[in-house]
Amino acid sequence: MAFYNYQLATSVPKTGTLTVNYLAVVGVGTAFLTDLTAGDTITVNSQSLVVSRVISNTLLLVTTAFSGVASGQTITRQRNATGTVHTTGGGTSVVGDGGNLFFSAVVIGDKVVISTESKVVASVTSNILLGITGSWVNAYVAATMKVRHLLTGTVSIADLTYVVGSGTTFTTQYVVGQFVLVGGQSRQVASIIDNLLLTTTTPFASPVSGGGALVQFTNIEDLGIVAPKSSYKPWQKSERIGTGASRGYGAPSAVWHWGYLTVVQRNALRVFCPGKSAAVYVQTRENDDSDAYLKFSGFMFWPDEESKDASRRPDFSVEFMALASYP
Length: 327
Known about the structure:
Elements: E1 7-9, E2 11-20, E3 24-28, H1 32-35, E4 41-44, E5 47-56, E6 59-62, E7 70-73, E8 75-80, E9 85-87, E10 93-96, H2 102-105, E11 111-114, E12 117-126, E13 129-132, E14 140-143, E15 146-150, E16 154-157, E17 162-166, H3 170-173, E18 179-182, E19 185-194, E20 197-200, E21 208-215, E22 218-219, E23 229-233, E24 237-240, E25 246-249, E26 253-262, H4 263-270, E27 277-285, E28 293-301, E29 312-325
Antiparallel strand pairs: 1-22, 1-27, 2-17, 2-21, 3-6, 3-16, 4-5, 4-8, 5-6, 7-16, 8-15, 9-10, 9-14, 10-13, 11-12, 11-15, 12-13, 17-20, 18-19, 18-21, 19-20, 23-26, 24-25, 26-29, 27-28, 28-29
């Protein structure tokens, strides 16, 4: 059982490509599984995009990203009606050319679109005949008709907490509570929905795409290494200024020190820094009143010399520099 909370981590690359963008639509009172399939076009917040995957009645993904978040929006589905149709200029109906299924494809109140004209459906008389409000300006022959249907519920374009995978197996690659790293940004995993979708506890700072990695923190006591005595500097150097005060500048740093480490403990620590230095993630104590533990990314530096005393390394220290708040 660990009594302290000093932790180390490195990033472990995972297969597949990860994309963080405005690709998820979250519904309230929606029935996506019934109303939509992959390939349908939906319109939300005046943006029309193609559905790539329907995950549940209240969650779907689109193939290309929306321009940003939006909430409390209506959602409209657009599909091409089966078969072709014809109309007359000034007419108030749409007549199917055969093989049409108006009864199952269209309801009163839907909008039908032929070329650049859009009309509201007033009646559905048969599978090949429907009436519209208003009249057609032009006559159309053997034309394709699109049907726009307002779906139930409201939707939101989700923020950048949704991570979409391609060629991934999230259920075995990532762990809830650990961190996913993509494009230089990392966030804590909140949930793993399936092998191609997970969510994070906080949004990414900006859209990003690329190979993914797992950043998994481990308490060093769980590795058999005793907790160190630690020090923390919130700046690299300090200097006096003209007013007589001092100022600090440069990135924070920290030092972990042990009276001694056994060779086994030293080797367990060496895994995180096999050379003179290594990029790592570290959780160490800062200097506030509670000596709180904070996570950082930075570089771990191995000592130039190691004193040896039988199977021990006495007076042993490692340094962490260029620390940046993580994530």
